[in-house]
Amino acid sequence: MVDISDYRLAWQVYLGVGLLASVIWCMLLRRLPVPVLRYWLMTAGVVFLFLPARHPDVPDLWVPSAGAAVLSILTEGLESAVPMLVTIGAAQILALLVGILLAYVLSGDSKKKVSAAKPPADRARAEPEIGLD
Q: Which residues, including other chains, have CB under 8 Å from residue 38's CB and lie 6 or more apart?
């Protein structure tokens, strides 16, 4: 049986390293010009790292679903990993919807801020005159 203190320590280490990886991932993606793609890839990466699944042998334990699915495929075959793969697929679809929603909400606010900060274009600017007398 798994010692509960080791189990908690393993999750703490995984969450800490995953948080660092998520921050680096989001920093790499922040310059993408397409907001929907940027926010979708950000949320998809976070969901891929942090989505838990029940351990196939010990139902009381939770494990990262991506790693558990890969290990289940390698050790027991594809049939044992199907529930985890379905969960990952559903979470990625949800991440796509969240990315679209974030792009819609955040780009709408930024357009309002940019348009409020711009001076009116119909006002004529006076150009300075340079005299060559």
A: 29, 30, 32, 99, 103
Render pLDDT for 81-96 as a digit per residue (tens, 0 to 9): 898 899 999 999 999 9
Q: How many CA atoms lie within 13 A of 66 on its CB side?
A: 12
Whole-number Å distance between alpha carbons of 47 and 65: 10
Give how far Cα 19 sits from Cα of 25, 32, 39, Å.
Answer: 10, 21, 17
Query: What pLDDT, in 10s, does the model give residues 9-64?
Result: 999 999 999 999 999 999 999 999 998 999 999 999 999 999 998 887 788 888 89
- Number of H-type helices and E-type strands within the chain: 4, 2
- Name the residue ranges covered by the structural domains of the chain: 7-107
Q: Is 89 within 8 Å of 82 (Cβ atoms)?
A: no
d(CA 72, CA 79): 9
pTM of the predicted protein model: 0.69
Residue 105: C-alpha distances to residues 69, 116, 118 (Å): 34, 17, 21
